[in-house]
Amino acid sequence: MALVTLSNHGEGTIEQLGLDQACHERGRLGEDLGWLAAVGLVRRDSSAGSWDISDPGAVYRLSTLGATVAASLAALAQACGATAAHRRVNP
């Protein structure tokens, strides 16, 4: 969810990106963003400096690698949709 949102919106705080509403029920947003950062897909500009400290004002953005992965996933989804549509037309 975070990769798609960041890919669509560029950058922003969790609130600006709407990630808090989308992921709040799972209670895993911090873990998800931390994992994405650990593997180099997401960056965070924060006055807190540490991912261990919650910072509502932190700005999140995709890294170059993250943007590439998000674009690849979007292309894959589009190709899968085209393939499924092709199967319905040509069984």
UniProtKB/TrEMBL annotation:
<protein>
    <submittedName>
        <fullName>Uncharacterized protein</fullName>
    </submittedName>
</protein>
